[in-house]
Amino acid sequence: MHFLTGWFIRNPVAANLMMVLILFLGIMTMLSIRIEGFPRIPPDSVVITTTYPDATAGQIDELISQKIESTLEGLEGVRSISSESRNELSLVEVRRAGGEDLNRLLDRIRLRIDSMTDLPMTARRPVIETTAYDFPALYINLHGDTDTVTLQKLSRHLKEELLAQPELSRLKLWGIHERELHIEVDPLIQQQFNLTVADIADKIRASSLDFQAGSLRTRGGDVFIRADDKARFTTEFSKVPILEYANDTTLHLSDIARIEDGFAEGDYLFRFNGDPTTGMEVLIGQKENLLRISEVVHRVVETFKAQLPSGVDITVWGDSSNYISDRLQLLQSNGLQGLLLVILLLSVFLNVRLAFWVAMGIPISVMGAIAVAGSSWLDYSLNDITTFGLIIALGILVDDAVVVGESVFEERSRNPDPILGTETGVNRVSVATVFGVLTTIAAFFPMLLIENPLGKVLAGFSAVVILALLFSLIESKFILPAHLAAIKIDGKAKTWISRQWSRLQRAAQAGLRRIRDRVYTPMLAASIRNRYAVLVLFVAMATFGLGLIQLGKIKTVFFPDVPGQIITVDLKMDARAPFQLTQGNVDRIRTIGVAINQEIQERELLETPPIRSLFILVSSAQSAQVYAELTPVAERPNVKILDVLDEWRERTGQLEGTTQLSFSGSEELAGGFQLKLLSKDPDILALASDEVTSFLKKIDGVGNVWDTLAGGQPELELRIKPAATSLGFDQQTLASQIGYSFGGAEVQKIQRDGDEVRVLVRNSGSSRDTIDDLLQSRIRSSNGDWIPLQSVASVTGSYVSGTLYRESGKAVNTISTSIDRALVAPEEVSQAVFEQLEPKLTQKYPGIQVKKAGELEEMEEIGEGMKRALLLAAVLIYVLMAIPLKSYWQPFVILAIIPFGFVGAALGHLIMCSNHDPI
């Protein structure tokens, strides 16, 4: 390295070209690098999705999920297999083992699944794909006092215009209801004309169909022949013949049925600022730029507004680009402040031009790091993690450059030859600075070896710091010396300003020497004379600091709550709760939020209300969410999102029929606090889950405890009576007639205006909305007689789970809860469960298994990786210090300062964190 340093000192053109090249590549990369909020988490598992229409969760679990699990047993490279069985849908997740190539695992899974032959005939072909963690760039809502059809057409039109932009590739619509054409027939009319729902559906299929075309091969060419005639609109279906009589009269569909072109039945509600709404979520693609996405969306939306009818408006909200823009501005301001401070301090104590070139190490190192990080080799983006790494790096980038500059300054004051003086000054500290940078790199490097996908993302800042340090080393050894050699150190002040500055420099240097001689040196001498007392003092300080953490005076959390801009209210209702109760609860939450919004605006004298957007999404009678976007912090300086959240939650209180009601002002990156209970016996699983839930509710700071076994959907089971077989009934006849009458028989699907419209035939709505309608219904026997249902079948009622979870062949219940991290850390709750409760559970309920899930599982995996990383870092640092020190023992003395660093960090958090915020 001495040779290269000397060569660059004697060839300043090469040094300048290297500097310009680094800055040029960094700027070019900055103009093209991908910008996003939180970086994409790499896929870690394979999901197999299978649809089985009209099947219950229990049927899905037995006929599909368990069979897929059995097929995948013993597959190489698999860490775990879990399944989720819902009504009509099976999801089987296969998580790869550490170090396993996901694409190879995907191929092996496809071979196994393709070989399956025992899935139900009507089940759809399984879809096999890797998991993807989608992060939204922003949200768009179309809203106003208009009908659903208009909103849906506008949403699809807007979607087409957005996807036509090359910068956008992925959108997710919401508030879009499936179109259906309903043909409803009163049961009395069916009996009058001796027609079942299946008979009517067959008649429609026979008259409304698509069929292949024939052709005539004539001398003039081919002539195609079509004999099909598919109905697409209500008027066309109304003319379908159902019965034809001998007197040439025809009974048409409109004579016996009510035909309605509408939407699928369901319990849902979408409102934006009180108006009916549809909208979309714009997602960030693998190679897309968040700032560019935001710019394009706003431009398209502004153009699209001219097409909106009166009374309809469009709003863009939840724009993540604002957050990353603030982070980039922070990086820019911190970098500029660092430059100015370095220049100012070094100018006072050393030399102005020397200070300038030392400070240039900051932009050169940052641009070099960005140039490599954004290249195709690494393909990093500018995001929350990498900008955090750059901000950390700013504080340590110029350390070696300062040491080199000071050494050169001292040597040049003794050696008048600028080349030899600079070379000697650099070489004198080269070993210390090189190994100093390498030890810092060694501290960050092991974090890149963590296997956990989330851990890899979070450790992304390490790569950026390492790159910045490497370029800092290059700059201080090759570029900086060439510039220092060209500086005149002993030049005399010629102007009044330069003379005054020289006087300030002499005063500052004299003051520094006085502090060194009168304060630091005596303290150092006293510490050496009383080294054992000093050692005891520092050990006592370390014990005190660690004791504060151990006693809980300083809370520690792995995934802290970082306040955002959106409050999320998640509402889960009991399965027996009617939609009207859910809607009433949501209305109450909204009313309280609106009142708080107005009160805070008046109290704080704000120009605009702190909550500017309120989006309500009710997806079913059992699930609803409320999203409240707050204005930027600059517009509400004294209004904290957590204060608004706490007041909203306190005023709302407990709502009737809820199983979960949670308020959150931050993103739960790892899924929040979760525990998994596994057992072969569902009854034991339910009993053990109740004990865990009760235990958690007794812990201060723990609230909103709920689990996947909570509630259950009501179900009526029909079984054919033995005596009914003599009347020509069997279970299939019973199931088909009841299923078609109350669920609907799908006649066909038609494409219309870009929508797929299902055509369903079923009983009229007024004859299938109560249990009595079912019990009083009649079904047709094989000889045409209509027999009361209760004479043919027995009816039993029960509550069953709408979703079944399995893992490793066992039933699973996931228990989730909200943690107030200011009162208790998730690690403390987990420790209490596994030390106090789990031993009792395993003894009381044989076969029960308690596992960590959510953020606890991520913490455990990342924590294990962190322990190995710290051990590896300590070994690397020891080796890198032992070599220049030429000692086996001195590095241990230096490494002994590491625990005191943790103590200093803890005390710093104790001083800086208000209201006992966790660290």
Short description:
By secondary structure, the protein is of the alpha+beta class.
List keywords for this structure.
disordered C terminus, 919 residues, nine-stranded antiparallel beta sheet, alpha+beta
Description:
Helix 12 (352-359) runs antiparallel to helix 18 (460-485), helix 15 packs antiparallel against helix 16 (418-444) and helix 16 packs antiparallel against helix 18. It contains 30 helices and 30 strands. Helices cover 49% and strands 21% of the residues. It is elongated and about 125 Å long. It is α+β, with helices and mostly antiparallel strands. Strands 1, 2, 3, 4, 20, 21, 28, 29 and 30 form a nine-stranded antiparallel sheet that branches. Strands 5, 6, 13, 14, 15, 16, 17, 18 and 19 form a nine-stranded antiparallel sheet that branches. A four-stranded mixed sheet has the order 12-7-24-23. It starts with a helix and ends in a 7-residue tail after the last helix.
